[in-house]
Amino acid sequence: MQTKEHWEKVYSTKASDDVSWYQVHAEESLRLIHGTGAKKSAAIIDVGGGASTLVDDLMSEGYSNLTVLDLSSAALLAAKSRLGPAASKVNWIEASILDAVLPRHAFDIWHDRAVFHFLTSSEERHAYVEAVLKAVKPGGHVIVATFAEDGPDKCSGLPVMRYNAQGLHAEFGSPFKLLKHEEEAHHTPAGKIQKFIYCYCRKIDS
């Protein structure tokens, strides 16, 4: 797993709109969240949300129960500063998802764009899935995006895992029903293209 020091340095030395994963609007994520049919009062957690603009767009659409979790205090500060007074309406958690203490069955939607692919050991991936199992409500929605098989093999200088839809779903296993998967060609601020795979599942265990 990547270190906190690494990500604090990244977000302390680069503008949040200059990192390779920056999106003006997280359009694919928004489309999948809309597709869940969840109410605007649904509890949504954005894991690794950091400085992402997803929280801005969800708030502007009327979603009112939002949590953003990130390892980096600098990333969270960037998002809070951008939102201004509205930031007080969001629950911010500074922690690694591998050891964050999240309440049981608290979330209707779990969203993660590009945290899971940094988990290069089976132990880390198992801990992540256990966190999802605990924190997501039965019947809840899980949206996870990683680099696709033809995506980069490193990000921010760190090694990553690459997946196809079947391989990504297999990491989560039978408690999660794969409903759909989508591909995305992400255009970085530097003009490069990064291939992503999104998997949308329903948690079917108790």
Mean pLDDT, rounded to whole units?
Answer: 92
Main sheet characteristics: 7 strands, mixed
Which CATH architecture is right?
Answer: 3-Layer(aba) Sandwich
- The unreliable regions are none
Gross geometry: globular
Distance between the termini: 29 Å
User: How many beta-strand elements?
Assistant: 9
CATH topology: Rossmann fold
Number of discrete helical segments: 6
Describe this structure in words.
With 206 residues, the protein is α/β, with parallel strands linked by helices. It has one domain (4-12, 30-203): Rossmann fold (3-Layer(aba) Sandwich), CATH 3.40.50. 29% of the residues lie in helices and 30% in strands. The protein contains 6 helices and 9 strands. It has helices spanning 4-13, 27-35, 54-60, 73-83, 122-135, 165-172; strands at residues 43-47, 65-70, 91-94, 107-113, 136-147, 154-155, 158-159, 176-187, 193-203. The strands form 2 sheets. It has a 7-stranded mixed sheet with strand order 3-2-1-4-5-9-8, sandwiched between helices. A two-stranded antiparallel ribbon has the order 6-7. Helix 1 packs across helix 4. The longest helix has 14 residues, at 122-135. 36% of the residues are buried. The mean pLDDT is 92.
